[in-house]
Amino acid sequence: MTNDWHADSDLLREELAAYSLGALPDADAERLERHLEGCASCRSRVRWLEPAVNVISGAVEQRTPPASLRENLMATVRAEAAPERDVRPAKPTSERGSWWQGLGGLVRRPAVGMAVMIVLVVGLGAGYLLAGGSNTADAPTFTKATAPPGSTVTDVSGTLERDGETTTLHVQSLPKIARDEVYEVWVRRGGAMEPRSVFVLNRDGSAEAAVPGSLAGADAVLVTREPHGGSAQPTTPAVLQASLE
Amino acid sequence: MDRNPTPEALQRLADEDLMTLVERKNAAAFEVIYDRHGGAAYSLAYRIVGDSGLAEDVTQEALLSMWRSGARFDSARGSVRSWTLGIVRNRAIDALRRASGKAPKLNLDDDLVLDAQPADELTDSEAIRRETSARVRGVLRDLPDEQSQVIGLAYFGGFSHSEIASMLGMPLGTVKGRMRLGLEKIRVALAEGMGVERSSEVLP
After folding, report:
1. CA distances in angstroms from B84 to A156, B40, B63, B117, B158, listed in the order given
2. Which tens digit of pLDDT belongs to each residue from B131-184?
3. Which of these CATH numbers, 1.10.10.10, 3.40.50.2300, 3.30.450.150, 3.40.50.1820, describes B106-204?
4. Total-model pTM
């Protein structure tokens, strides 16, 4: 890869200004981001330009957001928040007790589950930062998630990724749900359904959901549609299922 | 840091410290972030997509992605506000492209930069910004039209420099040069307006 533009101060400044304005074509932006990782002077130049970009983005006519924006956003955020008291990673034998705070059946996502999800999101979204990672140990395994037998909703797909103790459900496609609904992840073990986490879809119908806790002895990971906040037991038939073993 | 600061304590925290709590899934910390930057985020989204319903969707999507991937915020790479507005801007451009079938609508009168208004926010940095807002508006108004135009098309229209060059029928180098001159002019005027520069703000 040539860095000719780097040798020319004007070209460099043009490249960094265009990047700061989001005006570089994707391939050029990716190339520049790789360069920024190793070039302190260019990074500092981008940071120097940042207030100018902020002036542009902040110079638009200021509007008051509709109240529904805050309400919907914070409802989802609270549903996905860590428990009020910090929950340390739970041992499998005590998992269920630690997830349930007895607050009207509200599902709380354990802190450990979210940490796992954050790591995965970082890995997916900023892969270039992690180039040369040393993860050569156990390779993750992937299990296809599909519509359960007999389900009337067939336009669904997902992948269950198990990487050591970390399990993540990647949803490629699920039907849209209402704003006061969530999808809930369950682990089926010995005929019992254990609530694990709740999630909502991205705009394109995809989602990532942490599946915290052990899957030992479990026969499937399932997803149901539930009222906001999640349920203690499924209230609708499963729409997505990853069978284990 | 206390893992569960009181709401009053949260209000006093800097954005960067709040983001540390957001990474731990502290909803109250995220709420403060929303209250500080949500208005600017929505306003920017509205400015780009031009529709209140879509702007609401875009803003919610962008802020939720921040909530879910708070660990991606890196204070070494910029402020929380610029991170937020950068995410909102990119999501809004994506939405604009989806809504109009790939190519954003061409609007050559897009001299939005000239409609400068101060952001109405309450943080310290916003207070400083408000102090200098008159000067900033002056800077934006004084920006030569040809520089304002390419900056507006890129930032609010989502066009790449080569797309702008072809739609305006001018050489790519001219577009790049105008972007750089315009952006640097704003930056330098901002620095002058702020008085003594911090050493970190000296031109690299």
Report:
1. 32, 9, 8, 19, 17
2. 555 666 777 888 899 999 999 999 999 999 999 999 999 999 999 999 999 999
3. 1.10.10.10
4. 0.58
Domains of chain A: 4-58 (1.10.10), 91-130+137-243 (2.60.40)
**Lookup: tokens for A241:** 């299922």
**Is A74–B27 a contact, with Cβ atoms under 8 angstroms apart?**
yes
The predicted complex's ipTM stands at 0.78
| Residue A173 near residue A205 (C-beta atoms within 8 A) | yes
For residue A204, give the nearest of A157, A243, A240, A160 by alpha carbon. Answer: A157
Which residues in chain B have Cβ-Cβ distances shorter than 8 Å to A210? none
Q: Are A89 and A112 in contact (CB under 8 A)?
A: yes
For A138, residues 6+ apart whose C-beta sits below 8 A from its C-beta are: A163, A164
Is the domain spanning B1-103 CATH 1.10.1740.10? The answer is yes
Task: Determine whether B7 is exposed, middle or buried from the number of CB atoms within 10 Å of its CB (0-12, 13-18, 19+).
Answer: exposed
Which residues of B, range 159-178, sit inside 8 Å of A by Cβ?
A: 159-162, 164, 176-177
